[in-house]
TrEMBL record:
One Gene Ontology cellular component: outer membrane-bounded periplasmic space
Record-linked InterPro entries: CpoB (IPR034706), CpoB_C (IPR014162), TPR-like_helical_dom_sf (IPR011990), TPR_rpt (IPR019734), YbgF_tri (IPR032519)
Domain of life: Bacteria
Keyword terms, alphabetized: Cell cycle, Cell division, Coiled coil, Periplasm, Signal, TPR repeat
Family assignment from sequence similarity: Belongs to the CpoB family.
Protein name: Cell division coordinator CpoB
Record field: transmembrane: none
Signal peptide coordinates: 1-21
Pfam families: TolA_bind_tri (PF16331), TPR_6 (PF13174)
NCBIfam families named in the record: tol_pal_ybgF (TIGR02795)
YbgF trimerisation domain residues: 36-108
Biological role: Mediates coordination of peptidoglycan synthesis and outer membrane constriction during cell division.
Alphabetical list of SUPFAM superfamilies matching this protein: TPR-like
Amino acid sequence: MKPNTFLAAIILVSGSSQLWAAPAAVSDAAGSNQTIEQRLSVLENLMRNRNLIQAELQTQLDQLQDEVSQIRGVTEEQSYKLEKVLQRQRELYQEIETRVTQVYEQSKQLQPAVTPDSATAQAVSTDLSENEAYDRAVALIMKDKRYDAAIPEFEGFLKQFPNSVYIPNAHYWLGQLQSIKNQDNQAMVHFRTVVDQFADSNKRPDAMLKLGTLLQKVGQSAEAKALFENLIKEYPSTTAAKLATERLSKI
């Protein structure tokens, strides 16, 4: 082989090995071509950008904290107003109960003795419809204040319309009337009927409160406590639950 031919072969082999070699990374190439001052300048720019981003994030965080504080303030204000409303409801509830008791005592003193003839006249009419019979019994309480007369009306209603949607209400009113007359055992029977048999009745929370109060009155504190706790658990937002909480604290 001639010298020139041998040299050409060496150059060819060298060139092909360079073609097969992996290319250097751009950053490495750039880094190798940068001076120390240029590299420091790049790092300073990176740090500056990071600081700007952190400052912006901190500003957004501060704004979010301000908004959360404002929302918390509004929530606390609304909670305070709601508690005042509930407190007023509890006061009205107790006031109504007290007034009903007072009116009953006054009416009992003013009512004439009932003779057999008048008792017959006050007998429950069987000619009334379900709604009419219920409205008549309620009117004896709310309008006429004739509590003694309302008791046989509701008892007759229970017998005459055993499948009525007003059955839990009738039991509740009978419990109320007999509780006012200090007939605690009879009252508890009616309140317990509402509690145990009419889970969907809107009278159930109040019946649970009344039953628990009577149980506490007759010395059955353990059962009263359990009933109050169930009332608070099942109906936490009701006035009856708030009153149960107060009475539970006294057991």
